[in-house]
Amino acid sequence: MSQTQSVAFVRDSMLPPEPPPTRASGAILWLRENLFSGPLNIALTLLGLGILWLLFSTLWPWLSHSVWNANSMAECRQIIAAAHGPDASGACFAVIKHRWNQFVFGFYPVDLYWRPVLAFGSLFLALAPVLFADNPRARRIVIGLAAVLTFLISAVLGANGVELGAMAVLLLAWVALIEARRDWALLATLIYPFLATWLLWGGTLWEPAMVLAGFVIGFFVWRALSAYGMFAFAAAVLVAAFWWLALSDIVARGIATVLPMRLTPVTSDQFGGFVLSITIGVAGIALSLPLGIILALARRSDLPVIKMMAVLFIEFIRGVPLITLLFVASLLLNYFLPPGTNFDIILRVIIMVTLFASAYMAEVIRGGLAALPKGQYEAADALGLDYWKAQRLVILPQALKISIPGIVSTFIGMFKDTTLVVFVGLFDPLKAMSDTIRASFEWKGAYWEPYIFVGSIFFILCFGMSRYSMHLERRLKRDHR
Amino acid sequence: MVDYPGAASPPFRLSMLIYDRRYRSLTIQAVVFIGVMLLASWLIDNTLRNLAIMGKTLSFDFLFRRAGYDIPQQLIPYTSDDTHLRATIVGLLNTLQVSILGCISATVVGVVVGVLRLSNNWLIARLMTVYVEVFRNIPLLLWILVILAIFTETMPPPNAYRGENPAASMVMFDMIAPTNRYTAVPSIGMSNPPGVIALGREGISWALIAYAVVLAAAYVAHRLLRKRAKRIQDATGRRPSTLWISLALYLVPVALLTWYFGLHLVPPVLKGFNFAEGLNLDNAFVVLWLALTLYTGAFIAEIVRAGIMSVSKGQTEAAYALGLRPRRTMSLVVLPQALRVIIPPLISQYLNLTKNSSLAIAVGYMDLRGTLGGTTLNQTGREMEAMVLMMGIYLLLSLIISGGMNVFNSRVKLKER
């Protein structure tokens, strides 16, 4: 059957593939398909190029003339005029460099800068065991970087030897704990808020410690009585409340006389800049999630009274602007408390921001709860789980996973809203700080640079959060549809 | 715990309030209710004691006293001799004005950007992505301040438009003149004005009433026309074309009225050092409106994009397979499904925009917070009353918007059996 070989017009080997025509491959094809595929597309491309050109031609000369080293606006203008001619305009980013500390720390005492640095550096240590639970490489990178950078930055900012030593011990011990005993590291995460409070506001360690002790005591009472169900919880709340109201002050003072553990107190009006934003933002995020979960469960509860209260609370908070709530915090909160009490403005703002975010959070989580198939609830009941066990083991893990995008966008919204504290007299980085800096003689007229700087920082933080939520969504995806 | 019908329920014992699920819920609710009421009474008691210490009583009398301050931009006549109540209403109308205009323009921006983000054009899609991400991830306050700075720092003063060779020139066919204090836009003039109904100090122009009547009549006629078309379609299977008749129903009477009243635009003209004849919009308003539009537009763009992407391609293909033409596919198959995804988050964006309009405080636009919660509060020292009233009004606004939108939503919702 080797006839094919002998017939001249039958080809016995494959032709080598021809390269495609130049117009249908590579960059030209891409351009044709993506930019010039039809009259409408060509018009859009030209429009896009026009927008780009407009942006470039207005911004580039200004940016390319930017000055990074100067001590005043006038000096900046001189430098620009000398280099690019008298009519040239240019950015004066020297203001950022010159007032960097003010943007970041506000009016925090200069020699205490290491304390917010340590507080925010160890935030990463507290979060790492939670956020990077099953990604050891990322976790090690994060905690290593956080520890080293915290130490180095504190050293640069002028912490003294004793402080640096204590910091090194703390950071090393914490890193070792995270790597050696993961479950214990979670305990450290729970302690973190109290540590950070102490670091930021100073005073004696025993005040936040006694607040923490109330939770611990309550927890142990609940554990000890857990056989009694609801009573155990009620008893735990009562005992903890008794501790906070009656005992904690006396105990704190008692211990403080023996072992003071005092840091220089810093009052709330010295907070400002990004330290203030991040303090309010992180506290609000940490508090609003649990509160939002409780509100969402209450709103979906079978108990009509509880449901009605949750609906009233959520709809009230969602119906008014945050600014009015902040004004309530600054003007009215003192009316609602017993005469003579006067508590910290940052704490008041944190409470209001938390309430505000928790109402939105509750709606997001309620969406997640509603999206779960009914079979999940029935299956949990069929297993004989009681309400809280069913929620904790079956319902919430799934519902929270579904609501991650919403939760993170609520976080982002809240973090952006921290700039509104300027209207109750706190020094946010965006308006109050740039106004303060413009009010000084040497930086009069620095409009754009502070806005660009603060805007970029906000963009990086918020964009980072939204990208992390996308990553988390992918990681937690268990169904393979 | 036997719970089937016919079973004799066990006699009630006190311990069942705790151990029996059917009664326990009552106990829990009672305890929570009492707890919340105790908390509320504690707060109210504190408030009353605090007020007593300060020698204040709760009363809304201040609303009827002379306000004594001016409001730069007002929709109804107002002078500083009017009451605080009227100032509050002026502020509320200003809030409504910027919110409604903002919702409309943000929707336009959002739809355009959302569609362009899905376009095949690589460059435009990228540019729109950058716009959306940049505006969504930076606080609204920054955009308000930046746009304010653009207006106050880079726009020319009104007198720059003067002279033979002015330093600045008007934009949009010599119709709009942005300056560093206000933006001069054309106003609407009538060469054959029909007169005004006087209602106290306000007046409603007969022209406005004429337009409203004509549009309402056109709407009714349009509904009747559609009903008839549906009847014919049900009977014969053919739907008569209604588009042109409907358009004519709306446009022809409006055009006739416009011609009769001689409606025209009056461009702003420089008189002395300032613009006159046209409308001088306070820059506080323009800045707030622009910032709210651009910021909310970015969010709406994402909603629109998600809505369009949520309709699977199979739906379009199925519609084609049934023989529907592209336009009807869009209006009967794709849009109804996309709208169902788009509308609920869109409502919450409208609510957000309305609430965000209280950021007027950053530019000094006299909205509800600026009048009632600002100057009135500071002048009268009635924090409690002013704040309660203001929050109540905002709450009412939100409830109205969400209520109205929910009605609309339930009409486009999937009709499930």
Automatic annotation (TrEMBL), chain A:
Membrane topology, record value: Multi-pass membrane protein
Cytoplasm keyword on record: no
Compartment annotation: Cell inner membrane; Cell membrane
One Pfam family here: BPD_transp_1
Domain of life of the organism encoding this protein: Bacteria
CDD domains, per database record: TM_PBP2 (cd06261)
GO biological process: amino acid transport
Transmembrane segments: 40-63, 113-133, 140-158, 209-225, 232-251, 271-298, 310-333, 345-365, 402-427, 447-468
Family affiliation: Belongs to the binding-protein-dependent transport system permease family. HisMQ subfamily.
Protein name: ABC transporter permease subunit
Automatic annotation (TrEMBL), chain B:
Entries under InterPro entries matching the protein: AA_ABC_transptr_permease_3TM (IPR010065), ArtM/GltK/GlnP/TcyL/YhdX-like (IPR043429), MetI-like (IPR000515), MetI-like_sf (IPR035906)
Molecular function per GO: transmembrane transporter activity
Origin superkingdom: Bacteria
Membrane among keywords: yes
Domain ABC transmembrane type-1 per the UniProt entry, residue ranges: 92-405
Subcellular location: Cell inner membrane; Cell membrane
Regions crossing the membrane: 23-44, 98-118, 130-151, 203-221, 242-266, 286-308, 329-347, 386-408
Pfam families: BPD_transp_1
Keywords linked to the UniProt accession: Amino-acid transport, Cell membrane, Membrane, Transmembrane, Transmembrane helix, Transport
UniProt cross-references to PROSITE patterns, sorted A to Z: ABC_TM1
Signal peptide: none
GO biological process: amino acid transport
Membrane topology: Multi-pass membrane protein
GO cellular component, one term: ATP-binding cassette (ABC) transporter complex
SUPFAM superfamilies: MetI-like
Location, primary (coarse class): membrane
Family statement drawn from the similarity comment of this UniProt entry: Belongs to the binding-protein-dependent transport system permease family. HisMQ subfamily.
Name of this protein: ABC transporter permease subunit
Source organism (scientific name): Paracoccus litorisediminis
